Every structure is written in C-alpha cells, then in structure tokens.
Amino acid sequence: MDTTTPEPQTAEQVLSGPGAPVIVFDHVSLAFDERVILKDVSFTLISGHTKIILGASGAGKSMTLKILLGLLKSDGGVVWVNGERVDQLTEAEMMAVRANVGMVFQEGALFDSLTVRENVGYRLYEETRMGLVEIDQRVKEVLGFIGLAEFIDRMPSALSGGQRRRVAIARAMASKPKILLYDEATTGLDPITATTVDDEVIKLRDLENVSSIVVTHQLRDAFYVATHTAVRDPDGSIRIVPADQHKERETEFLMLRDGLIVFEGDAEALRQSDDEYIRTFLS
Amino acid sequence: MTGILETWLKKTALEVQEYVRLCAAAFRGVVSPPFYRYDFIEQLDAIGIQSLTVVLLTGFFTGAVLALQSGLTLDQFGARPVVGRLVAASMIKELGPVLTGLMLTGRVGSGIAAELGSMVVTDQIFALRALGTDPVRKLVVPRMLAGILMAPVLTVVADFVGIVGGWMVARFQLQVTSGVYWSSILEALYMQDVWMGLLKPLVLGFVIVTVACHVGLRASGGTQGVGKATTVAVVAGSVGVIAADFFITRVLISLIY
Questions:
Q1: pLDDT tens for residues B78-123?
Q2: With a CB-CB cutoff of 8 Å, which residues 101-130 of chain B face chain A?
Q3: What is the C-alpha to C-alpha distance for residues A234 and A188, in angstroms, rounded to an integer?
Q4: Is the distance from CB of B98 to CB of B247 less than 8 angstroms?
Q5: Can you list the positions of beta strands (E) in A233-283?
Q6: Exposed, middle or buried by CB within 10 Å (0-12, 13-18, 19+), for A146?
Q7: What is the pLDDT of residues A52-76, one digit of tens each?
Q8: How far is it, in rounded angstroms, from Cα B250 to Cα B253?
C-alpha cells in the first residue's frame, strides 16, 4: 500500500493542469437601468474545452464575453479568468489578464488604418518588447496557419468579410493566448465562408490546445464546431474530420434566454432536449 | 417640465463628469508609461502640419481685412500710419489665437470626433482594450499633447501672415510706407501681448482636442451617431474656444498686465 501523500500543488500548477477550470462565471448578473441582461448566470470552462453559447439576439451572449474580458463590469457575482478574479480588478490590472485571452469581435473590428500585418502583430508591436524580426515571423506564422499569408500587406478594406474574420482570429491568436472568445464570428457570412472560419476555431482548439467560448446564434456553425476535430497528418497538412464521442463531449452548449441559462450540455443532449423553446430554436 | 429639466441636468452633469475623468486619465497618461511616441509624431503632422494651409489663408485674409476696415476708421482721426499697430495688437492678442482655434475645431476637432466615433461604433475601441491597450493613452494623450504643442505654433504662423496681409493692404491700398507700418508694430508691441498670444492657444488647443476626444469616445448608434458626434464636437469645440478665450483673457489681464 502506497502511503506517500502527493506534493501539494500551487494554484498555478492546478490551473495549468488538464481538466482545470480556466473560466468560472459564478452567479453573475447584469442590468442596464430597468433592462436585465444576465440573471444569476453560472458556468465553468475547462482547459482545452469549448463552450458554445447560443441564444437569440439580445439574450446576453456578447455581454457575457465582455464581462469575461473586463470590458464591462457585472452588477453582481464572481468571475475568474486564468485564476484571477477579474470582477475586482481595475482596468490597468486587467491588462495582464487580457494578455492570455484573445477575442474575435463581430465584424472583426480590425483597425482600418493598419495593414493586415500591423493588425495581426498589433499586440506584439505595441505591448511587448519583442524584436521586429521575431514579430514578423510570428505574424507570417499565424497568417500561414489561417491560410492568408499572401494578404499580409493588404488593408482590411481590401478583404472579403470571411477574410476579415479570419484576420481577426489571427490577431487574437498572435500572442498565443490560452483562451479565445469568439463573438458571432460567422454572423453574416455565407455557409462556405463561415465553414472556413469554423475550421480555424477547430484548428486552434485541437492543435494549439486553446480553450474557447464561441458565441453564436448560427446553429449550423455551432454543431459543426462541436462535432468536428482537426488532425495533423504526418506530412504536416491539417484535416478537419468528424469527431468521436469523447471529443464531442469536450464541447458544451449553453443556451441563454432573457438572461437566464435554459440549457447546458453536449451536442447530443441539446438535440434530444424536449424543452419547447429549445425545440423552436433548433427547428 | 420639471422632469425634462431634471433629465437635462443629470445628462449635463454626467457629460461634465466624464469629460473631467477623461482629462484626468489623459494627464495620468502623460506622466506614466506606456507612451506611444509614434502616435504623438503622427498627430503632430495631422494636427499641425496638415492644418497649415487653412491657418495661413485664414490668418492672411483676416490681417488684410483688418487693415482695410481699420484704415477707414483711423482716417477719420488722421491716424492712418498706426494701422500696423492696430493690426498687430488685434492679431497677436485676440484674432490669431481665436481664429486659429476655430479653424482647428473645424478641421481637427471634427476629424478626431469622427475617427474615434467610428472606432467606437465598430468595436475597435473594445478591440484595443482586449489587445491590452488603454485607448486614452493610445488615442487621447498623443492628440492632446500634439494639440497643446501645435496650437501655439499655428497661432504664431497665423499672426505673422496676418500682419503681412495687413502690411500688403497698408502698403498698396492705404499707401502707408513699409517703414511706418513695421515701426508702429514694434513700438506698440509689449511682452505681455506676446505672452497672451502664446498662452491662449495652449489652453485652446487642449480644449479643442479633449472635447473632440470626449465626444468621439462617447459616440453611439452607428454611422448616424458618428455624424452627430462630429457636429457636437465642432459646436461644443467652437463655443468652448470662445468661452475659454474670455476666461483666459480675464485671468491673464489680472496676472500679467
């Protein structure tokens, strides 16, 4: 019988280990005057997993991401991101937390006066002491990863909608964050272009081990991300293939309705739900 | 009626509070890192160099018309030779700073409000914060410093071309000799006037840029909101320039004269 007790782990070790929670949203509420946005919302995101937040427009999906990133302050509740209690941090203190969290905004929110290279390398150029050669290499690497290397010197206005979203993903991932937040990254795109964006989300999750929260009301994209996985072949090429059941369970759905969570579970549970609202939403 | 007044007062108080908070944050950004030097240099060009044409034209024609108008009045007292003194005093103490301020409000204030407003409504400000950048340090501080620095420079340029414009009218229209025109300027020019002419634009530059930044950063409601912010920036900036000019003049008269 083994009587040795395991070495106590530091909080950092626990948080960097497998199965550790990287985001904890605990009884969070938010209201603007009389309008309630979030009511007592709680969920946890596990390292390397994906949480897909579904809901109709105005359900509080985007606000959830903004609270996570400290862009908005909640009225109540506790929010932990990478072991930091962000609901209590000042704007200056939040900058350190944001270094490990990337966000892809609706429409991309690319800086229209900067080239693709400058957009993607923005954080590295402006907020780190990285050398210009090193930054350039990293920018080319991420643009190569999303398949837009030849657009490096274009202005955002010269890109299509799908290309802009993919550049936004490249910008968010350039500084190698542990968590990526996608706010309606495929809204307004045609299904084929949307799939190219979904593929990037899957590749980052499965090949770069990035934990992610995907906010969307596009069911097709939500299920595609949940039921597919990225594999790298021996020759280095990347393929998107259907995921096995174990992999599917790493992606959880969360449905918001009028600021309340009405469903939480995996893709299979969502498909089999009897809830009338969910049935209507899925139909 | 009371309800409307109460709402208006609350809204005004909120705007003033937010403006003061923005200015305080901007001053903190001036004295503590990170500093965005390239943005500052870019703004020196955008606010200063690119405003030269409008300031040159405004200054020149203002000086010229001042000489023309005052020449007629001075003739009634047989004082045509002192037209230079009148043009210089008016330009340096009052018209140079105020007209440069108004031109900057129209050109720079509207541009800043539209640019920052567009960034707000397209989530670029959120994106900046998400990427670890404080928008006040990145966007407001370089513009504020460039405004404070370039407004006096542009005012000196406007004063000079205004006096030259006045000289051209005095020399070729009013037949005042060049020697008389320039010596009357030097005789009547006091250091206090020069200080007033230099200190005023410092404050006006600050007012124009901070008002425009405040209005731009509080834009909402899509492209319509950006348009509204631009209009508000020009109106509030222009009124701010005139009002600030009065108060600075009052303070400087009691301090340096």
A1: 899 999 999 999 999 999 999 999 999 999 999 999 999 999 999 9
A2: 122-124, 126-127, 129-130
A3: 36
A4: no
A5: 238-242, 251-257, 260-265
A6: buried
A7: 999 988 889 999 999 999 999 999 9
A8: 5
What does the alpha-carbon distance between residue A37 and residue A238 come to, in Å, rounded to a whole number? 40
Calpha distance B193→B87 (Å, rounded) = 13
B138 touches chain A (CB under 8 A): yes
Residue whose entry in the numeric block shows the structure tokens 């606000």: A63
With an 8 Å Cβ cutoff, are A127 and B131 in contact? yes
Query: pTM for this structure?
Result: 0.90
Chain-chain contact of B124 with A122 (C-beta, under 8 angstroms): no
Instruction: Specify the DSSP class assigned to residue A130.
Output: -
A16-64 pLDDT, tens digit per residue, is 666 789 999 999 999 998 899 999 999 999 999 999 999 988 889 999 9
Residue A9 CB burial class (10 angstroms; 0-12, 13-18, ≥19): exposed
ipTM field = 0.89
pLDDT tens track for B139-160 = 999 999 999 999 999 999 999 9
Measured in whole angstroms, how far is the alpha carbon of residue A153 from the centre of its chain? 26
Distance CA B48, CA B154 (A): 7
Adjacency order of strands within the sheet including A35-46? A35-46, A21-32, A76-81, A84-85
